[in-house]
């Protein structure tokens, strides 16, 4: 009889512990956003040099209760085969096909930014990537500079459709410059400079 009661007490204790553990698991509390995602991966074209271009990646956590430890970010982009330097993330190329190197995995530096804190001032991690331009294939037309696919911790992120990416103009319209316009502009600049000196 004593064994049956102790077994019953043990089952009740196990059930109480399970209930307690489920109460301790944080339920998501998200910042109100239009996309309702836990994180945002921001890809920003920062600089466009003659032979290189620089991209800034920021991962922002919108969950007020959840940290992401040992997070990873997988990006598919045609120019990842020309990565020159990654500044504050670790980078490892992924080669699903030996001839094509367009996929890479990024993750945080240990003890520096491998923990993505909950929403707030410290709820983001960011890095910059410097990539060499391949003159034969490089272009900023039609959203080429943006990733094809993005995965955060193994879950695919939704990307906007390619036709919603910003377009860069091919060239600016050229206005004919007349010698009289240049002369008038230089006279005005000299006069304006002289007026400032006199004041």
Automatic annotation (TrEMBL):
Q: Disordered: where is this region?
A: 1-20
Q: Does the keyword Glycoprotein apply?
A: yes
Q: How does it sit in the membrane?
A: Lipid-anchor; GPI-anchor
Does the record bear Chaperone in its keywords? no
Q: Name one Pfam family in it.
A: COB_C
Query: Which residues are in the COBRA C-terminal domain?
Result: 15-166
Cellular compartments annotated: Cell membrane
Tell me the protein family, please.
Answer: Belongs to the COBRA family.
Q: What is this protein called?
A: COBRA-like protein 4
Native organism: Stylosanthes scabra
Question: What's the gene?
Answer: COBL4_2
């Amino acid at each position: 009889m004593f064994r049956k009661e102790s077994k019953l007490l043990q089952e009740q204790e196990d059930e109480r512990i399970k209930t307690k553990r489920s109460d301790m698991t944080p339920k998501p509390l998200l910042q109100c956003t239009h996309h309702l995602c836990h994180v945002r991966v921001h890809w920003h074209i920062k600089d466009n040099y003659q032979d290189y271009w620089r991209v800034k990646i920021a991962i922002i956590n919108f969950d007020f209760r959840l940290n992401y430890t040992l997070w990873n970010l997988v990006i598919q982009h045609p120019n990842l085969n020309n990565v020159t330097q990654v500044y504050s993330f670790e980078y490892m190329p992924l080669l699903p096909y030996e001839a094509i190197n367009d996929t890479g995995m990024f993750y945080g530096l240990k003890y520096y930014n491998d923990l993505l804190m909950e929403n707030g001032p410290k709820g983001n991690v960011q890095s910059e990537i410097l990539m060499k331009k391949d003159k034969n294939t490089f272009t900023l037309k039609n959203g080429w500079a943006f990733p094809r696919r993005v995965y955060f911790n193994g879950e695919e992120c939704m990307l906007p459709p390619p036709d919603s990416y910003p377009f860069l103009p091919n060239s600016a319209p050229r206005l004919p410059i007349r010698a009289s316009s240049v002369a008038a502009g230089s006279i005005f600049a000299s006069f304006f400079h002289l007026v400032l000196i006199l004041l």
